[in-house]
Specification:
By secondary structure, this protein is an alpha+beta fold. It is built from three helices and three strands, in the order ααβββα. Helix 1 packs antiparallel against helix 2.
Length: 86
């Protein structure tokens, strides 16, 4: 439970770091990756608005961007065909 909480907090921190549009965006992405990797013990790749987390067993989860995720969890969630979410 503690590891999940740390992962959620680290993801929020990484999103905050990658959300700014300053000239040091690449440095912020790398810092966010290192923080997440140390906190959760998983491999993290932050690329602009997309963040990919690779678990110890090789499974990957991608968050952000405009595409529907391709991971196992996305197959369980019904995809909204049309409309807007506010």
């Amino acid at each position: 439970m503690k590891k999940i909480l740390i992962l959620v907090l680290a993801i929020i921190l990484a999103c905050m770091l990658t959300g700014c549009k300053s000239p040091s965006k690449i440095a912020a992405e790398k810092a966010g990756e290192k923080i997440l990797e140390k906190a959760a013990g998983v491999k993290v790749d932050i690329d602009g608005e997309k963040m990919t987390v690779e678990g110890e067993d090789g499974t990957q989860m991608t968050m952000g961007g405009n595409e529907w995720p391709e991971d196992q969890m996305a197959k369980e969630i019904p995809k909204m065909g049309s409309g807007t979410v506010s």
